[in-house]
User: Fold Histidine phosphatase family protein from Cellulomonas wangleii.
Amino acid sequence: MPSSLQTVYLARHGQTEGNVQGRWQGQLDAPLTALGRAQARTVAELVADEPVDAVFCSPQGRAAATAQVCGERLGLPVVPLDELAELHHGAMAGMSPDDMERAFPGELAQRRQDKYRWRFPGGESYEDAVPRAARALARVEASGARHPLLVSHEMIGRLLQHHLRRVDVATALAGGHPQGVVYRVDVSTGEMTTLGEV
Assistant:
């Protein structure tokens, strides 16, 4: 892990209409709900007294909208990074699990057998996205930031944790990232603490 990064703050976008409907959005987008906008404000307050020196976000609108609230609170510009985009859900993007089962019978069962290597039809697997998450962190390091806030998504967020915490992928994939909380990772030790109420 790049040693010049000292603390990395990981946040997920606020709740979206797609989340409410139970749809897996991938690289599609949906607007934040009223709760999602409140969660963005919560994230901003959670990091307001932290030594955040840069804000980066996924290019997806839901993450950018959340990051913008944080940037305004911190007085920092928001820098979008394509590498922080959510895993590409391919032909399943925008579907609920029931939709997926009807359109692609048996695929979700295969996913449960090997969550790491299973690939969304026409999209990405976690395995595919591991190098992308590493490139995101390399770009953040190259910016000169030491205590950056990264606003992204649940799936790519797991892979950021994999790199930052130096845990195996099974451990990283077993976790989630609730909306409205921030994970603070000490890069030197890999220790992660939670800011906010889960």
